Amino acid sequence: MKRVLIVKVTSLGDIVQALPVVADIKRAFPGVQVDWAADEAFAEVVHWSENVDRVLCAPLRRFKKARRWADFKSIWASIAELRAYRYDFIIDIQGVYKSAIIAFLARSSRRIGYQAPDLGERGAAFAYTGRFSRRPQCNAWHGMRINAGEALGYQVEGPAVFKLRLPEPVRLPFASNGAPVAAFFHATSKDDKKWPVSHWVAIGRELTQRGFQLVLPWGSEGERVEAEQIASQLPGATVLPKMSVTEIAQMIDACALVIGTDTGFVHLAHALQKRTVMIFVATPPSHYGIESPFRSISIGDGKSVPSIGAALEAIDYVHTEPHEVAVQHGSAAA
What we know:
Keywords: Cell inner membrane, Cell membrane, Glycosyltransferase, Lipopolysaccharide biosynthesis, Membrane, Transferase. By secondary structure, the chain is an alpha/beta fold.
């Protein structure tokens, strides 16, 4: 096998969590080239992967909103780039119309996608010459790895490998006072995913007492107002300026701890191997959560608001070193 195309066009968290599929393919087939097709809005994230050889992108989301002629020309040009090579396999791990169209337009006789019950949009099935097995009973991220492995004939082994390299920041958006930095990603895509402001304040006070410097990013005007509401009750906390995706990623990389709701940037923190706590209020952590021993953890059941105590326990967990656990177990055994 010489060349494979992965199609995963959106969104930030989903793309980040799908990147280990590339590492799996390259482990199974040394020397294979793996390209990736994504929406232009998220292409920079794929560029950070050291494993992806070529990133193909088009302004699909922007064209859908504005219908500008310049964006249409960009999409048309991207089709020629997409068809520049013939692929041994095309793996569509998105399963919607736009990803299926990309898979169909690319040059390959083997285009693999989800079975009908697992598709995001049933009509996407037109593009595929083969199907994955039914989605396995595990979280979505490991399920993508298993599906790709079955399609290409290899066994998934070991933990997820992200292998991201960010561009060096010109400067960070906060002045460091030498203390470890904790970022609060309080904003969410939907109101029902929010964690109460009072809970953020309580956690912030505890972390301040532990010597952390707190920073709060935001994206919209409403999110900025909420960030200021939280920061006003936490002396020394910094509401950051509005930043690009790359600048936020660089900020995350400078943090010692990231706490946030189920959002793309918290998934990115996990991929960058930061100590991360992800809070689930309205979505199931069993399907979309993060987990890495003593480094990343998800809290909540997706049906109720996780308590302040649960968040503090999670923070303690991600700051526990494995050797400390070994000592504790040894003491218990004695």
